[in-house]
Amino acid sequence: MSGYLAESVLTEEADGTHLDLATALGVTPGGRVDNPVFFTGFVARPDIAAAGLLAVADIAASRYADAGLAKRLANLDPVVTAGGDRLRFESFSACNSVYARFDLNRDGLGSAEVGFGTTNIDISLPLRTALARVDRSEGLHLSVGKDEVRASSLAGTHVERKVALPDRWVRGFAEVPALSASATAVTTLVGPAIGRFLGGLPRVAPPGPTLHVLPVAGGLRSSRAALPGAVPLPGTARLRGCDRIARHASALTVYTTSSGTTAWVFDIDGGRFTVLLSPDPFRGFSGEGSLLTLLTHPEVERYGRTLLTALGWAPTVDPAQLANATGLRHDEVATGLAWLAASGRLGYDIVDSAYFHRELPVDSEKVVRRNPRLIAARKLADNGGVVRQNRRWVVRGSHGGWYAISKVEPLRCECTWEREHAGSRGPCKHILAVVLSASA
Amino acid sequence: VAVEQLIELIMAADVAGIDTLLRSLDRADRAEVKRWFDGSRSWFRELRNESRPGETISETRGAWGWAEGICAVSLLGAVTAARRVPWADFWLHNQWPSEAGFVQLLCDADRDWVAAFTDAASRVGLGRNARFTNDTLSRVLRTAVVHHELPCPSGTTFLREWLAGSPKGPLLDTLQRDPLMPELLYLYLASGECGRTPGLADATLALVDEGKVDRSHLIEIVLAQLTAQQRPASQRVFAELVRGLGVRAAEVPGGLSYLVGVIATSQGAVGQVLLPLAIDLLQDAADLTELASVIAGRPERKQKDVLLSALQSEQLRHRVGDPSTLEALRTLGADDDVAFAARVAKARAELGDAPAAEPTSGMSLGLWTQSPAAVSTERVLLHWWYSDLAGTWRKLLGQSPPGNNAVTSWAINATLNEIANGRFDFAILAGDAHVLLSAGKLSVPRTSRLLEDLFLGGAMRQAWPVALSLADEACAGARRPAGLEALLRMLSRYAREAPRQQLPAHVEALAAGTGESKAEQEARALGAALSREPLADYVTRIRMATDGPSLTIRGLWSRGGEARPLPMSQPIKVTTGVRLDELRLAAVDPSNEYIYLRDLVHDGAMTRSDLLLRDVLRAVVQHGADAVQGCLASVERLRPPGPVGAAVDLWARRTLTIPIFWKLALKARTYDDAWRQWRVEPGIGPHELQERLTPLQRLWEHVEDEVPILPSALNTRAARVTFLLACEALLRPGAEPVLLSTPTFEDSTLELDDLLDRLTARGDERVGPLDLMQALYRLRATDPARVNELDLPAVVTEPALTSPDGQLSWDAVEVVRTWVAAGGLPPLSSRPSSDGSRWIHEAAPPVSWELCAAAPQGMLDDDDLIIGGNTGALARVFALWPDRVLQTPFGDVLWDDVTFAGGLARLGGTFGLPSHDYLLGAVSRSDKGRRAESLGVLVELLGHDRLNPGLAAEAALGRLAAGTLALPTTVQSWEAIIECGGLRGLWPLALETAAALCQTTPKPSGLPALLRLLTAYAHEVPEPVVPDGVRILAESRGSTRTHVEARALVAAMTRGSQ
């Protein structure tokens, strides 16, 4: 854990408004760096850049599935990834059920150079207020990290606030790419239809009701019933975080996955704003477990580490190119990418249909090692909790009983977890234990 | 040693002792104690679960909590101590003597230490008990902070109860005197909790006026917090402050960008107050485009109206130019609301921009040709209550739907499935919806959404006619239901999907009108969309085609209300053979002895106590008295017995004798008497009073007293006569398997044939005098000529039960003969007392209750207690006089009178003025829900033709004179009754009432509405006759609304005859 050298500030100067985002410990191609500098230059649309940052920060400060206000107002700092030609600002809601990413692309960043690396940025309440006042007509000079500490030095103070990147975020970062990769586009709204749709959602206390939105001519119709072809929208208030950016959006594309996760991608001038909603407001991304089966592969770590050397902070990761570069087969690349994603080293861009490299400034492999379901499964497999029989596996349950798992694919367990989630949150520990035992 | 001493003091929760000990420790002992305390968390945790004698759990925890807190403050660093103090154990409702000691410790502590302590403590989490314990934390911190003159703590936990510890009083006074002001207020506004304090905005504005709060700083805080996404209630406070402070556009840092951003992300109240400022700052086309796109996406109509007005002003157009104004208007105009879209179109036309003639939602999705696919119904665990699809639909369409979304989702999907499988009957759905609509219970907006779900699910072809017919019915009534425009708008949205067609008659009549209400405009839009015509062409065409509203006859006259059979036509249940175990259950079941009239709405409830007595007597014949008494003697009652139960209890315990019977009849006091006497005795509290009263319910325990006191169910004369009648019967068990008074019908009335049969069957046996008298008072109207059938041998009454000395007896046949020859029970004549406080009921029956020595005196007096119960007993004894259960003339109805009215409707006999008055009051009450419930009662009575138009009019006049005639609500109720199929029954009543009211001076305020209601349905009535009262008014000179409506009614009623 490291801290900021100063608070992020927005200042008025002779050459325009300066937004200096303070960075914490970062990871760059050169390794771990305290307070790295990723970008310095004028952005094309100051108001959009400010609104996007605010939207990401709003979601980080929101807790949709719990009204505990003290925690709701506790700010967690968004993560920024510089990818050579773009900046990606990411955050999760405090309840971990909403993921937000604001991509500021080359068009939005002007001609200034963008570095490589990932770090946290500080967005405090005063900065939030200042960002809300950014005018589109005034130039905005954005610095992500600074060589000199402007505001604090002037004030004669030195504030070092510790940065906390909770495990839940890291596990969320691990799950979101896989879920995003499985998403398919359902419909696209353009122009005023975006505002009408969002404006028509009930403005009630979070998380809000569950609706199902059905694409119809000229927009989306919401219904309380899960009609065929409708996209689920559980917890409508979770889309409130998009209000800041919606007025700048030219298009909104809705994606859905078989697990019920939905993605809402707003096209904006010079960038994109993406929001992923988990299938239930009370269900955080950190527990989705979509990668667990891949992580049981005995060679997963080796494949992942091999690929890591070839990622090179590319803004988009091409699996075929990686296969060529590393000599791994395509399925091995997929397994290795899963390990990388599970350790938070990859994000996924739905519109580009491609992974991008990101290195979280924490020991993210620890998250893979500490995955509770995987640990429990290993324990079961190692301690004789899995018995192979003719046509089935029998796995010891938590309370002394045994669960039978047929050898017919896909594996299905009789445990409570499987009954509740039916595979939508990844395999249960019993199935994982079977997979581990079978591959041992 | 020091640790042991400390533990001992903690165990004793001796806070003062702990403080003294810790202050007295030397360095070494203090270090040792601190070491122990550092590691004592789990020890304290276990201690919390111990209990101490005489204390509640929260008291014990609090006592030990203060002890731990004292230790923490004395031994730990400020921040650690703040987190160690178990704040969540200090419940608000307990008085804490230790709190003063704890606060004193803080006051004595170092100022800097306290500053760090209070700051950290102000942020601790209190968990789920915060609402009970937060007050204590805030109070303690406030005292310490004020004492040391420290800055106000800024933690949210402290701020949540920001005024705890302040003197109680009006908010403004409290804030004016608060030493922590104004910083406390600034922090509170930023805490996210400010929406919880009522009147905060007003108080703050007053403080600004007084100069105690800096206006500029306040504006700065409020504008900053509007970007923090605080709770809606807090945002509303900020909106009030912005309005109250008169914030100008120039005072808003960030200008338009800030304002637009806040409007886009905040509650409507905030947008409403900021929008005018944003409009002031609009400078160019881009500004306006951004603002218009935000406002167009907002759901609040008010903001759209404000922007539209601004766009129509010259000043703004001059600033931003006409092209951008038009662009903004186009953005605003893409709105589902036809009325608003029409206003936008008008504004565009004024700028020379002709909107497209066709609605923009003209693209077809092909829904008409789709069919729902059979899908697996969601795996929704539903309560059994919702397992019935038709029943679930009824609940969903009604005004109190199930709150669970899953139910709605299940119902829609199950319906689509049933449609796909050809099993869904839309006629049932339509019928239920129409019934609900008629009764005013249909939620039209929700119905609209549900039907839209069916459309989108592929069932538009089937659901469309239902939706259209509902809209037609809704347009047909004299009063249109709330939300009709939503239904019409939804239909317009999908009109392009449906084949080209004409609107149903009543919707078209609405569209053809000249009004500009939302419903009328939506009806026009729907008609135009369905006929595929431009709106203007369509409106012109239908206005030319129709001359006023269509008068389609809907057949309401022939549509009868569904009236279930009344008890008066239902013979009582006949049983043969009585099982003792069943009898025991029946005796203990309080439902067999309902004593409240409202309970009589249940089928068979009127006669259950009679049948219970009959079954006991039958069982005695069948099983022998000893067996039955053995079975019933051990009955343990959960509720006090009713009249029959009290008698059975005495008899089963073998305490009922003839001397006891006479003592109970002539000497016993009532429970109510005893209560009145005892409750004013000096020194008797509620507990002692209850201890004395409870045993009275067990009559057998004190029946030997010189003056026994009867159980509470026997307070009224009617209940006592029922009790004594049961005693009389049980004193002669085996003699009379069926009493003379056992009813023939479920309304407790008796047929002469049955009475004759029973008298004939008595032969030489004697009858009970009370039984005979009760039989007479239940005897239905009988032709006096039938007295000839009473040529029977004499049947005498039992002497021992006829008079206390056992010397008297009369011939029951002769008494019956007298009764029948005189015409039976005369009608009850009722009039209000001179002071109008109660009904005076008068009648002169041919045989008086006074003939029976055992009957309570004054059986026909009206001073009997019926409030709070026993109305059932009264109704059973006087089964042919339903008016006797009513006490207050022309008054307000009571809260439970819906069911009371239901019980009234189940009574036999003829309804007089009191009953008509009561029913009029029940349907005119202000509580909409209860009024709707009572409509069913009236529909039933009308269905059975049991109401009298003349008495209804008299009741209305009585209420008018008493000032309790709520004619507008009555008219609403009557309309609902008509729509429920009650037109034929209600028409004469309503017309006679209207005629009577037309002759009053001054005219009641709701009379025009009543006349309009009659006019709206006059064309449904075959050959209506105009009553004199209405005609005289219509022909008189005058131009009041009443005159106009009277003339319209006469015109409508005579239209067919011209």
Helix content, binned percent of chain A: 25-40%
Separation, N- and C-terminal Cα atoms of chain B? 114 Å
First-residue to last-residue Cα separation of chain A: 37 Å
DSSP summary: helix tally of chain A = 16
Proportion of strand residues of chain B: under 5%
Query: Would you tell me the overall average pLDDT of chain A?
Result: 82
Largest sheet of chain B: 2 strands, antiparallel
Query: In terms of structural class, how would the helical and strand content of chain A be classed?
Result: alpha+beta
- Beta-strand share of residues of chain A: 25-35%
| Helix content range of chain B | 55-70%
Overall, the morphology of chain B is flat
The geometry of chain A reads as globular
Strand order in the sheet with the most strands of chain A: 4-3-9-6-7-8-17-16-15-11
Describe this structure in words.
The complex is a heterodimer of chains A (440) and B (1058). By secondary structure, chain A is an alpha+beta fold. Chain A is 31% helix and 28% strand. Chain A has helices at 46-60, 69-73, 106-109, 125-131, 150-155, 167-181, 192-200, 243-246, 292-295, 300-311, 319-326, 330-342, 365-369, 372-382, 416-421, 429-439, and strands at residues 9-13, 16-21, 23-28, 31-34, 39-43, 79-83, 87-92, 98-104, 116-121, 140-144, 184-190, 210-216, 219-223, 231-234, 249-256, 262-268, 271-277, 346-349, 354-357, 386-388, 392-396, 402-406. In chain A, the strands form five sheets. In chain A, strands 4-3-9-6-7-8-17-16-15-11 form a ten-stranded antiparallel β-sheet, sandwiched between helices. In chain A, strands 1-2-10-5 form a four-stranded mixed β-sheet. In chain A, helix 6 (167-181) runs antiparallel to helix 12 and helix 14 (372-382) crosses helix 16. The longest helix of chain A is centred in the first third of the chain and has 15 residues, at 46-60. The radius of gyration of chain A is 22 Å and the shape is globular. Chain A starts with 8 loop residues before the first strand and ends with a helix. By secondary structure, chain B is an all-alpha fold. In chain B, strands 1-2 form a two-stranded antiparallel sheet. In chain B, strand 1 (829-832) and strand 2 form a beta hairpin. In chain B, helix 33 packs across helix 34 and helix 46 packs across helix 48 (949-962). Chain B is flat. The termini of chain B are far apart. Residues 377-386 of chain B have low confidence and may be disordered. At the A-B interface, helix 1, helix 2, helix 4, helix 7 and strand 12 of A face helix 16, helix 18, helix 24 and helix 26 of B.
